[in-house]
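REVIEWER CHECKLIST
Item 1: Sequence provided? yes
Item 2: Single chain? yes
Item 3: Sequence as submitted:
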Amino acid sequence: MKGETKGSRTKQQLYRCAMELFREKGYDQVSVDEIVRKAGTAKGTFYIYFSSKADIITEMLRQYDDYYDQVAAGLDPTWSVERRLGHMIQASCRFTQDVIGLDLIRVLYIREVSGSGQEVRELNEERTLFHILVSLLEEGQRTGQCTQDMPAQELAMLILRGIRATFFEWCCQDGALDLTQEALCFWTVFSQGLFIKAKQ
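Item 4: Structure as written out by the authors:
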């Protein structure tokens, strides 16, 4: 890839191998030794790029952010704000379900609940998705498409909490429910209140 350094390629190789092993065996069943063996690198090389196995989770969240940026850049500006918000929620669920996987999301929630992962919460006001939602909601408020009863930032946090609750329920049910379908059901109900003034 143009502009990619050997170091960045090595880091990505370690990340990809770790993710493959996590999905195959489960996060807790994978050691750093296995990751470096699969990647074909020395153990010391791993610690140049990651401080621990848990640091792979931090890198995973950076991948989330990159993905959200790509999805947002591809949104059709002629779509309504409601449709664009729904598309972002759908994209978040599909990436989580198909790329990240149940086991890693479960690990992420365990870290958050235990307090060991507070610096990398997957859905909060410091992450890319929050800023994308705020931007879309502000546009909706400016153009009269959605309610102005609450600031866009507060509305965005309510949406993120709904998504987080759906992710948590998905983990509790061991992936038995359709994550995307459940999140879109939440969005359908929530958006009726959010956009009701524009629809009347």
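Item 5: Key structural point noted by reviewer: The radius of gyration is 19 Å.
Item 6: Recommendation: ____
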